């Protein structure tokens, strides 16, 4: 399942990050790494961006970035 498909209020664990080196690195620099738990706080009305809680802080992630994060 991809991060952009998860329901609001769910807690998921990052399984894999897809993309090329620089793109993947940018996502990892935001604190989204393999094995970390993400809580889906809310989604904007048109689905972009997705607001998540990761490592104790709130983060807004664009829909394109959320599609590259595989979760379980």
UniProtKB/TrEMBL annotation:
Keywords annotated in UniProt: Iron
Domain of life: Bacteria
Keyword ATP-binding in record: no
GO molecular-function term, one example from the UniProt record: transition metal ion binding
Family matches, as Pfam families: FeoA
Residue stretches making up the Ferrous iron transporter FeoA-like domain: 1-72
InterPro entries xrefs: Fe-transptr_FeoA-like (IPR007167), FeoA (IPR052713), FeoA_core_dom (IPR038157), Transcriptional_repressor_C (IPR008988)
PANTHER family referenced in this protein's UniProt entry, alphabetically: FE(2+) TRANSPORT PROTEIN A
Protein name per its UniProtKB record: Ferrous iron transport protein A
Species assigned in the record: Faecalibacillus faecis
Source taxonomy: Bacteria, Bacillati, Bacillota, Erysipelotrichia, Erysipelotrichales
